[in-house]
Amino acid sequence: MQESGAYLLRAMQNEEMPRLDLLVRESIQNALDAGGIENPSTSLHVDINLRECSTYEVASVLGEGINLSALHDRYANKSVQLEIRDSMTEGLTGPLTFSSVEDDAPHGNLLKLVFEIGRTRRDNAAGGSWGLGKTCYFRMGAGLVIYYSRIRSQDGFEERLVASLVEDENKPDRLLHSSRTGIAWWGAEEELRPITSSKEIHSVIKKLGIIPFLGEETGTSIIIPFLRSDLIPPFDKADGARPWWY
Predict the structure, then answer these.
(1) Helix residue ranges per DSSP H, the chain
(2) What is the pLDDT of residues 178-233, one digit of tens each?
(3) N or C terminus of the chain with fewer C-beta within 10 Å?
(4) At residue 151, what are phi and psi to the nearest 5 degrees?
(5) HSE of 156 in the Cβ direction (CA atoms, 13 Å)?
(6) Contact 160, 212 (CB under 8 A)
(7) For residue 223, what are the β-bridge partners?
(8) How far apart are CA 146 and CA 83, in angstroms?
(9) Cα separation of 23 and 25, whole Å?
(10) In DSSP terms, which residues pair with 85 in a beta bridge?
């Protein structure tokens, strides 16, 4: 990617619309886009969960590549974690890597959501770029977003797990000490792609308090640790007036 974290965090600034509003719109749209493909009459579900997350557990998941001292300075013990979970959707389908995409074949939900941030669209009658809407996820917390998904495959089901971090690379307390762009991913050890081992995935999401998809269930869980405490803009409660978005 040629973009920097600082650019992506400002790419879709909208001072008139609160971050939470952008988040809900983007999340629901992503779920709708991934639902009703095989059976349009099936209802999809979107659950928004809040829970405490342990700084130690999140750090143990990320391991190398992150400034652990800066992480613990910001979040000494624990913080709030947001999970946006859609089910009865097709999940993060498609190729695991760009190198496995043949010619002009579809890139799939996985590459579009996780990796194609700001990529110019080439489909007919479409303009603009992929992925600027999802930059709202990175502005909800420390810039870390973890993607967990379960999809149908030729052999039954397949699970996928990958994490991404986008932050302002100019900040002195940045979490990425080895990146000049402020952008990083965590996944499989051998190459830049998601983890697909269910045993390894379940070990990771258990630390985060995330319930795995089971049975015939498919879908995607977007996990945002270290949720910011200033997401609701201040307003004058004395006169009883509520903002239009409240």
Answers:
(1) 5-10, 19-33, 55-62, 68-74, 108-110, 135-138, 198-207
(2) 777 888 889 888 788 899 999 999 999 999 999 999 999 999 999 999 999 888 76
(3) C
(4) -125, 165
(5) 5
(6) no
(7) 83, 146
(8) 9
(9) 6
(10) 47, 221
Return the amino acid letter for 136: C
Tokens coding 8: 């992506």
Place of tokens 């269910």: 198
Nearest CA among 74, 19, 84, 90 for reference residue 49: 84
Largest CA distance in the chain: 61
- The neighbouring-strand residues paired with 165 are 144, 184
Task: Give pTM, 2 decimals.
Answer: 0.85
Unique residue bearing structure tokens 């979490």? 175
Tell me the helix, strand and coil percentages in the chain, rounded to 5. Answer: 25, 25, 50
| Strand positions, DSSP E, the chain | 45-54, 78-87, 144-153, 156-166, 183-186, 219-224
